[in-house]
Design goal:
Blueprint (H helix, E strand, L loop, with lengths): L10 E8 L6 H9 L17 E7 L2 E7 L8 H14 L5 E7 L6 H13 L4 E6 L8 H21 L12 E4 L9 H10 L1 E2 L14 H17 L8 E10 L2 E10 L2 H8 L4 H18 L2 E10 L7 H6 L8
Parallel strand pairs: 1-3, 1-4, 4-5, 5-6, 9-10
Antiparallel strand pairs: 1-7, 2-3, 8-9
Helix pairs in contact: 3-4, 6-8
């Protein structure tokens, strides 16, 4: 009787998830993890911190670094977020570049392609997201990549002496973060690139994102949903106090705005906006942490808060955590 073959060794990898804003990175991360670990919204700059989502699978463990989307930077916070996005692509095992292929390639998409062509990471995946949409611009993205590579090679040949170029080609995968099974091919590609190794985190957690920052993100997501395009880019959220009593948590949250006029918009007529945010954030946080969460919201005018390094650090944008 033949001996039973040994099971394939488990793999592990850190995956940097990058791409332009609104490419659907957070939706893909949530789908691959199997539950919500990062907030999602159609508004630009929704993700402001680098969030680790942990995929546990019989094949091994993937640690996904969901980064702020690269966009045309406006103001100090925008420049800071772009810097975080670029930095998060370094030092990872696999680079996952997400493109919104339901729209024609944008300048930021070309920028990521040129960076990949220049740096030639050994392990890179290009995910053409939103493959459920029509039209789907796969051909335009592939043509753009071929153009970028031809230009790179032409420059290398014309150097004196000619420069040597690496030949690592990205793996192209279609994906859809909003449908069950829409990330199966993407996960297959990532696990195919991962190397055998021990798990980096315990197998019973889906994220190691700090609790206070996770709470602040949920509150900010609800603000974006209720305020739409009125002031979301200029709103900052900070958990001032978290009282973790048995069976019930009380959370005090301050919402920072730049101008008094924005304070009125955030509060709403007779407090309707704050009430709506509190009523939608509370149940979601309760489900997230498995305990009743009571949220108290306060709005504070802090001119130019996006230039205040202390506040930026406390909100997690400078690498500091409360």
């Amino acid at each position: 009787m033949a001996e039973k073959e040994d099971a394939a060794p488990r793999k592990a990898a850190i995956v940097g998830v990058v791409g332009r804003t609104n490419a659907g990175k957070s939706t893909l991360v949530n789908r691959m993890v199997g539950e919500k670990v990062t907030i999602v919204s159609p508004v630009e700059q929704t993700t402001r911190n680098t969030i680790r989502g942990i995929v546990e699978d019989p094949r091994g463990q993937l640690v996904l670094l969901d980064t702020p989307g690269l966009h045309k930077a406006v103001g100090p916070l925008g420049k800071l977020l772009n810097g975080m996005a670029r930095a998060s692509s370094a030092g990872t095992d696999i680079l996952l570049v997400v493109f919104d292929a339901a729209h024609e390639p944008q300048l930021e998409d070309e920028g990521w392609m040129r960076r990949v062509a220049k740096e030639q990471p050994e392990k890179c995946v290009f995910a053409l997201n939103k493959c459920d949409r029509s039209p789907f611009y796969e051909t335009m993205f592939r043509d753009l990549w071929n153009t970028v590579m031809r230009e790179r090679d032409a420059v290398a040949i014309n150097c004196d002496p000619p420069a040597r170029t690496a030949s690592h080609e990205p793996i192209w995968v279609k994906a859809c973060g909003v449908k069950p099974g829409g990330c199966d091919a993407l996960l297959d590609a990532l696990y195919g690139l991962a190397e055998p190794g021990p798990a980096l985190f315990p197998d019973d957690i889906v994220t190691d994102y700090p609790r206070n920052l996770a709470i602040a993100d949920v509150v900010r997501e609800k603000l974006i949903q209720h305020l739409h395009d009125e002031v979301p880019h200029e709103v900052g959220v900070l958990v001032e106090d978290l009282d973790e009593r048995e069976g019930r948590w009380n959370v005090a949250v301050t919402i920072y705005v730049n101008r008094p006029s924005q304070k009125g918009i955030v509060i709403g007529q007779r407090g309707c906006n704050l009430r709506a945010v509190r009523m939608s954030a509370g149940p979601e946080l309760s489900d997230m942490f498995g305990v009743k969460v009571n949220v108290e919201l306060w709005v504070k005018v802090e001119p130019n808060w996006m230039k205040n390094n202390r506040l930026l650090a406390e909100m997690g944008y400078l690498g500091a955590e409360r």
